[in-house]
From TrEMBL, chain A:
Matching InterPro entries: 4Fe4S_Fe-S-bd, 4Fe4S_Fe_S_CS, Sulphite_reductase_A
Keyword presence, Iron: yes
Residues of the 4Fe-4S ferredoxin-type domain: 215-246, 297-326
Keyword Coiled coil carried by entry: no
An annotated Gene Ontology molecular function: iron-sulfur cluster binding
Coiled coil: none
Protein name: Anaerobic sulfite reductase subunit A
Domain of life per record: Bacteria
Keywords: Iron, Iron-sulfur, Metal-binding
UniProtKB/TrEMBL annotation, chain B:
Superkingdom in the source lineage: Bacteria
Record-linked PANTHER family: ANAEROBIC SULFITE REDUCTASE SUBUNIT B, DIHYDROOROTATE DEHYDROGENASE B (NAD(+)), ELECTRON TRANSFER SUBUNIT
Binding site for [2Fe-2S] cluster: C238, C243, C246, C254
Keyword match Chloroplast: no
Annotated Gene3D superfamilies: Dihydroorotate dehydrogenase, electron transfer subunit (2.10.240.10), Nucleotide-binding domain of ferredoxin-NADP reductase (FNR) module (3.40.50.80), Translation factors (2.40.30.10)
Bound cofactor: record note: Binds 1 [2Fe-2S] cluster per subunit.
Keywords: 2Fe-2S, Electron transport, FAD, Flavoprotein, Iron, Iron-sulfur, Metal-binding, Transport
Protein name, UniProt field: Anaerobic sulfite reductase subunit B
Keyword Endoplasmic reticulum part of the UniProt annotation: no
From TrEMBL, chain C:
Keyword hit for Translocase: no
Lipid metabolism among keywords: no
Pfam families given in the database record: Fer4, NIR_SIR, NIR_SIR_ferr
Record keywords, A-Z: 4Fe-4S, Heme, Iron, Iron-sulfur, Metal-binding, Oxidoreductase
Record's protein name: Anaerobic sulfite reductase subunit C
Amino acid sequence: MAFSLNYQKIDDILAKLSSDYDIYAPVRLVGEGKFSATDRIQYDKITRAEQIVYNEKSDFSPREIISPITQTLFYFTENEFIENLPESRSIIIFARPCDINAFKRLDKIFLENGDFADSYYKSRRDKVHFALLDCKGGWESCFCVSMGTNKTSDYSLAVNFNSKTVEIEVNDSSFNKYFNDIKQCSYQYNFVKKNKIEVELPEIRPEQIEKISDLQIWQEYGQRCKSCGSCTAVCPSCSCFTTRDISYKENKKAGERRRVWASCLHPDFTEMAGGHSYRETAAARIRFRTLHKIYDYKKRFDTVNMCVGCGRCTDTCTQLISFATLLNRLSQEIKKLSVLEEGVEYVSKSSSS
Amino acid sequence: MCQNQVAAKNHLKPIAYQVEQIIRQTAQEYIFRITCSEEVKPGQFYEISLPKVGEAPISVSSITANYLEFTIRKVGKLTNYTFQLKAGDTIFMRGPYGNNFPLEKFKGGNLIVLAGGTGFCAVNSLLEYYYQNYNQLKSLYFLTGFRNQASILYQNRLAAYQAKFTQTIYCLDEEVKAGFKQGFVTDYLKELPLNKLQDYYLVIVGPQPMMDAALKECKQLNLALEKIWFSLERRMSCGIGKCGHCKIGDKYVCVDGPVFNYSAIKNLID
Amino acid sequence: MEKKNIDIDVSKLTSNCFRQSKVKGECMLQMRVPGAVIKAEHLKYAVEIAEKWGNGDFHLGTRQTLSIPGIKYEDVSAVNKFLQSYIKGVEVDTCGVEMEVDSNGYATIGARNIMACIGNKHCLKANVNTTELARKLEKQIFPSPYHIKIGISGCPNDCAKGHFNDFGIIGLVKPEYDYERCIGCGKCVEACQGHATRVLTLTEDKKISKDSCCCVGCGECIVACPTGAWRRNPQEFYRVTIGGRAGKQYPRMGKMFLNFVTEEVLLKMLANWESFSADVLNHKPVYIHGGHLIDRAGYYNFKDKILAGVDLNPEAEVADHIYWAETEYRANIHVK
């Protein structure tokens, strides 16, 4: 069922939903962007429709709602661990197909990998309902179609904001009650079918890894990359964290254990006690991140790739590295390897099939 | 929505144990004996967890019915704090984590264990297991090396192993001492009667440069690489496959390792 | 000396923005470009003047003017007539200067061209829109016969060299720290150490501590931060340096007068410059560097007069004293 509403009506519904859910959507922080006179768009709780930035891609992904950047796991007194696991309210997240698909990637890590579910992630993730935001055709740096993440069926609502009206498709009957007496319409969500850029994913055979890691392309990108880690901070499918303990200044005997997001682009990511690090160059770190996003994860879980093609890493990179271009170039280099060294004809396979 | 129903337990929550005894090994390495009767297999590790300090993965160096031992080297913030503990103190831990040495596979075979420096800590539980169950192997060759006299670990066990195992070779990198050969432990692999051993398994544990050198030596000696097991050490925050620090290629050292057969990691680049 | 029979009032020529040339009978036109940005179409005037009345050369003026050398004295009035639409286009239409533009060229050279870097329309480092500010100031200072040199920079790098102007204006930001968003990677600390004043440190808890005393407001921490833990405060601020100058006798770099003032405070303060100058100079607008004027009046007197009627914003700081430091090619200048 689909409904057409004006902004007054949608605000009434958001008010009703707010009593049952925490509602998160991309909002605009005017003038708070990285550069002067630019805005920042990131996720926050909303109560009114006009807060929702529906016609731009957010700078940061919605993952921070479920996996906060800084999260307190335990409080301690001298010799006691107290869990910080409050019951989460139900959550609605306004998100696009790429981001919803990214949550599936995070689920694999936080709920399945190592055969344990992460209680903190799970406590919030179990409460999530998605409201699908219309992509309005997408943006120049998107490559969701190449990654097969342009579609999803995991949504309760699908929403298309226009200047005066809002069209909503209800895909979950438990939400019907919020739409009594609302005018029906024939709206159906439009999944993006084609992006401005296409990414050809490399076909990698495990025994090629050593040769691939020796490719000159990593050195070249390593020269350009400043290891700032912005690409991992905006990524909806990055999941790494570091645990840190602190003691309170006022009472040294009490403190807390937190986890904070970590970045594989930062030089200390692999640093062991004593100082030894396994990936000391930016080149090695870019190679690691790239292969994780388009090879390792898929190989491990025998599933889709981790990268969802949202293009935020490209959007945020101050050194102007396009992840899509990097992937396309990598594919070409690997084709050359395959043809030259194995003597076999490279056969392209569609990644989105 | 996720359907996983395993979440009842918070796996990041450590449990309190009691420090039974602290035994000084070297100036830098102490053995912490912890009262614990959990079932642990040789090769596994625990996350040692000190409130307000942090957590670190430490391999179990000795397993008995009533206690576990961890041989801890003073190298970082957490291990420095650990050295302030006294017998009777509480210590928090999570575990045991990771896989273990393939005892079933080794059964009835000839086993060669090559340990460098603190790598000894990670294989000592394995050596103790065979010390108790020596009939499970045809023969056991144990080679270990330390930098100098001051860094020798498990002095009393070295003698016991020498008395029991088929052959032992102990060496020091930098100093001369009776009962120890001089040089790197990897140099002495070729002194073993490798051609006589039809069927053997090799366990290599130590600092990364030592393992790299050992692998090179194995290749030169034309050893069957698929019969080599390594135990890897990486930075970890969680120990349960979430934090991502220990990932190499498609493997997580914490859950897929720390014990890896060569064939599982030969195509992994750090 | 060329033997030419020339009779010209040089000071009138100068205040009309033509500079006397060593080549007898020739002068150089200096066209104002407030904030160093004009529409490309306005460049055509410079080209046409250079080709038609000049010697074909074109000089980028050291104060960011468009300068045309080799203009004959007899052509000055023709050039001025042609300049009318440039002056109207740039001064009136672009900067909103309230003045009648006639065919007699620039009315005064008193308030000099306002220099500026490209600012935040383009530059990654800039904290303010220097072009817009320059245009607002042009509206305020032009055409005043009193001498004033202003240089505006978008950030504390001061690429426009405001430190060597009577007034150096520098765009600042007050970064806001979001503790929860910080992952303790230390990238801001590195940036502050490398590019700025080293006011950031990584604490034992792997969060950031800041010694606000010496933050120069450059915003490097914001650009360096991967997670957006450093937020750009949308309120723009300015630093003002005073008394900078070049010169043969005792050049000196300007000193900080105001820190973290708003645009409103800045504009109101500078609106007092003309009356301050008139006061000190007995209403005779002679050419004198702003720094000398401040020296003549005394800093405390200057401070009172220039800040008269100005309500400072809460963040604003004002220099109690100024300790000048000249390069004294002529010694003992402060001994009278």
